[in-house]
Amino acid sequence: MFNQSKLIDITLPIYNGMWSYRSEWSNSIATIFATANGDASTVYNFNIHSHTGTYIETSQHKLNNQLLLQDFQLDAFFGTCCVVVIPQLTDNTVTLASFLNGLNRIELSDLKGSKLIISTGYGNNHSNPGYLKNAPCFEPSLTQTLIDLNLSLLGVDTPIIENQKQSYQPVIKLFEANENLLLLAPLLIDLEKVETGLYILSCLPSFKCEVSGSPTRAFLIKNK
Fold first, then answer.
1. 147, 184, 149: which is closest to 169 by C-alpha?
2. Which long-range contacts (CB under 8 A, 24 or more apart) does 19-22 make?
3. Quick one: which of 53, 68, 56 has its CA closest to 21?
4. What domain range is 116 assigned to?
5. Is the pTM of this model over 0.85?
6. Among 53, 66, 96, 146, which is most exposed with the fewest C-beta within 10 angstroms?
7. pLDDT in tens, 175-216
8. Pairing state of beta strands 43-47 and 28-33?
9. H, E, C per residue of 101-156
10. Does residue 29 lie in a domain region?
11. Per-residue pLDDT at 6
């Protein structure tokens, strides 16, 4: 149905020694049986957490509610998505002005209730020691604009949108304003392949179980 040139992988890799939000949330992948060693099968053990690599989460991650991933229909994780590219940041901040400039020919009003991804290209830093510490933040006026849009899904290619020097809890504010919002993060987006525009997004949870967060294999399909 789709040729390879139209499929764009936007998922961060999972690997031993990779970044994690906390030291106690570290991840590992180990081979426990291997045909190369004479075993009948090759089998791996994945010791990973819900917020590993690229993940999808519901508001229960921050709020005391009962909203789980399995409560959403499949089309919540698949469908038309607007990607807004913001390659140049001021003071490592995604500002409202830069977001509006990045919209290009897309009208802000057209984004109400939609799936939206904001991309800065920061995902390429996932193997750097300062990946979390140096992550770009969203300014409060941008967060408020995103709240006003009542999005169904928000994707970002930074692991943290909080201002780490002057906290204002943007993720909690987003979820409190819309408990049905899905958050997809952090993404790995190649700005040589992705520009502002409309795509088909797929980001189904990796696991079908009663959880509010799960790793996902996310990709875009170029939409004519």
1. 147
2. 19/126, 19/127, 19/131, 19/132, 19/159, 20/49, 20/52, 21/51, 21/132, 21/159
3. 53
4. 4-14+25-222
5. yes
6. 66
7. 999 999 999 999 999 999 999 999 999 999 998 899 999 999
8. antiparallel
9. HHCCCCCHHHHCCCEEEEECCHHHHCCCCCCCCCCCEECHHHHHHHHHHCCCEEEE
10. yes
11. 87
Locate 137 and state its tokens. Answer: 């933040």
Q: Would 19 be classed as within a structural domain?
A: no
Q: How far apart are CA 214 and CA 199, in angstroms?
A: 23
Domain at 116, CATH number: 3.50.30.50
Average pLDDT on 133-147 reads 97
Q: In terms of C-beta density within 10 A (0-12 exposed, 13-18 middle, 19 or more buried), how is residue 134 classed?
A: middle
| Tokens 């003071």 sit on residue | 91
Q: DSSP label at 13?
A: P
